[in-house]
non-specific serine/threonine protein kinase
Amino acid sequence: MINLFLSPTKSTFHVIICMLFVIPSCVFSANELHDRCSQPFNCGNQNGLRYPFWTSGREDCGHPDFKVDCSGEFAELSVSSVKYRILDANYTSGIIRMARSDFIGDLCPKDPLNATFNESVLPLAPNTKLLTIYHNCSRAFPQYVSTYVGDLPCERMSYYVTTNLSSPLLDGIRGQLDDFRSSCKSVSIPASGPWLETLQRNRTPDNLQKALAEGFQVGLNQDCSSCSASEGACGFNQNSGGFVCYSLEGANNRARKKGLAAGVILFLFLVLALFLQLIRKRNKKAFISQPKLKALIPLKQYSYAQVKRITKSFAEVVGRGGFGTVYRGTLPDGRKVAVKVLKDSKGYSGEDFINEVASISQTSHINIVTLLGFCYEGSKRAILYEFLENGSLDKLISSKRPSNMDWRDLYEIGLGVARGLEYLHHGCRTRIVHFDIKPQNVLLDHNLCPKVSDFGLAKLCEKKESILSLLDTRGTIGYIAPELFSRMYGRVSHKSDVYSYGMLVLEMIGARNKDRDAQEVGTSTSSMYFPEWIYKDLEMRGSGSLTENGVSSEEEEMVRKMTLVGLWCIQSSPSDRPPMNRVVEMMEGNVDALEVPPRPVFQIPAEPLLESSTLSENISGYTQACSMNVA
């Protein structure tokens, strides 16, 4: 999409180039796309795959969420960070059979993700039902519903259920069921309805394994079925971001008509862009039209009056930040929400608001906060999130509770934040760089599952984009990567988030041990550069315990691993920091494979944070923030 806020000269140049080269190319590519996408391809043990699946070189022939991995024996794909294996694809009947890869042959995989399958592309077949697995439970399942429940042979208490526990028939023990659910992690897996009925009649691990291995059925959506019936080829338009049917008959005529219409639209768009540029210069204020807003953010939009009703006239404050106040609210359907009401601020413009809402609206991950809606009514702006009971991470680590918490809890929080950032950097169709990772922006649900939030400073990086403007980028002192202060450290990129993550992990460790370690190091942590204190603590203990006496060796391994990963992440040069996918591997791997990183050398600036204009000069050369090949 053309940026309305580019200079008139740049806008004119880009539109002319588009009209001269892009539109004519559309005329000649229609038949080529039909021929390419009508041909099936082989992958692993599967033959004849077509839309919505695709592999390298067939980007226009499949939905972006359904790229298949053909490097192994089986054809697999990742949907919302969860791997699925394609078991059978029958394009004659329009039925595709798939299964979750991590549960094939393993009833107790490590940390399985609970993810929603994208039914807008592949709707679940009518005979597909959900099997729910509760794992890592701290209490036993209520015996009253034992007819629906089976035990899993896992190390920690785990169960599976074959029916909907929200049924009115179970209202009498609703409180006990809610208590049980809150003590477990859960995963909902699509499965074959007939197999689940067999499993319910004979609840054995063997039958459960067969049900999971049998997988579930999905069907082609109506658009693709109609396209195939008319001898067209199903595909995906990268420009419009939607399904397209490549038809051979009359394709050139239609393409010419579309090209002509696109040329007229682009010409009118150019005139509008120039007009808006003049308006912006005159008013010195960004103009964001409602149609553009709806195109960018396909979410529920609330009026300001509705926001007031949801929050009961802003009765309960649950948090305050630099850009606004967060209130507790309740949607008409009874769901609890957190409503961030933005205040007018020179540091938070309309474009910042669009950044935050557009960023989160494109995400779907267990470790990313869920956006439920927004309000944009003149100067009234608000964002509605899911409500998370345990608040933000900074409240947790600044309270007395960390000293009584298990290291496993802190380790799982650190690992969850890493997975969330890995998803933003590597799992999204559009890379998102957060630029403000800190404990205040990590929220915790009732199970202490962390969720990255507050995308006000985030930057969306299109895959073809190589230059981004960071004129208004700011952060929080103590978490800002050094390259944001000075180009002498390197280029600004997604590695800036890696630095902030490292400081967050080290602060979690420091909060857990700060009183004891300050005494043992023999100095006040407030008078010493924080990572330097961590290094001294690491040296004093060598390969021994990093925690107090009486903790298990497993916990010692966790805290040492967190320490080494955190120190690797805060290396002064971005090229020395690992990318987030490598950080996740380090957190999940063996601590013995991690070396102690060198001490980063920083020249700490005298002022805590540069002014916007100075910061802009220092980072004006930001040209590779979206590059996928940064070391």
User: Anything to note?
Assistant: DSSP finds 16 helices and 22 strands in the chain.
